[in-house]
What does this fold into?
Amino acid sequence: MILKIGTRGSRLALAQSQWVKEEIERRHKNINVELIRITTTGDKYLEAPLSKVGGKGLFVKEIEEALLNKRIHMAVHSMKDVPAELPKGLMLSAFPEREDPHDALISRENLNIDQLPPGSKVGTSSLRRAAQLLHIRPDLKIVSLRGNVDTRLRKLESGDLQAIILATAGLKRLGLSKLISHTIPDDKILPAIGQGALGLEVRSDDVDTVEILNFLDHEQTRLTVNAERSFLKELQGGCQVPIAGFARLFGTQLCLKGLVAELDGSVAIMDEITGPKTQAVKLGTELARKLLTSGADRILEHVYGKGPHAS
It folds into this structure.
């Protein structure tokens, strides 16, 4: 049997999909897995910030179309790229165990965030990272930085940037963790929804592929990512607004932290909620509503021009 995986063509995306391919072939000796490279909208527009390109699912839409058209059997996504709502007929069938979800600072002088000199230029493509960084260090200068991991590292080496921020998970998966100057704790910068987690997307009616992938599903990752995505869905968040969320399990209890910030970092509204892990999705919804009543609704209204929950 041949199983086709749809993947972006970046080195990180291919490394992640190759890992899934090897795990499937190790578990199912009768299956040969092929990687099908697909160029997404997010891969085509590498100069403009993602918030200016607009729309949701910039790194998944074309792959999902290939899935619906049955050109591929499944897709491997970085969960932080996947919108809160999936197209009709598709589902996330398995979540492999999550890698470190935190952000990483890579600096030329091997400094941490607190040690960066005032006025230092820090490169990031993420409004979430920029807003939180400015909230704790308003003296820093944010420089928009797009491109894959290799491109961003080259810009740090050749340009006048003092540091860049990338996802720890991506650096680890590429074998580049030695470059990390500082793994940023989540009480300084809260990770993106689903950061560090992979999601395996399939057609909802493809019971054979669902069954093949069952062994890769990691319960703790599924629960925490679902809580975070429920939080995002209730906020109706896109890439134009800094939204962060991170869930952890403590035995049978799930703790979820969430944040909505102004683009310039002047205001950051954060709260957390704890409850039974069996209520993961409900906890995400409840935390989003707590933040909305604490002022997040005004931030969303300001960014989008109208509040997502405005009547």
Summary: The first strand starts at residue 2 and ends at 7. The CA atoms of residues 245 and 258 lie 4 Å apart. Confidence is low (pLDDT under 50) at residues 307-311. The chain has ten helices and 13 strands.
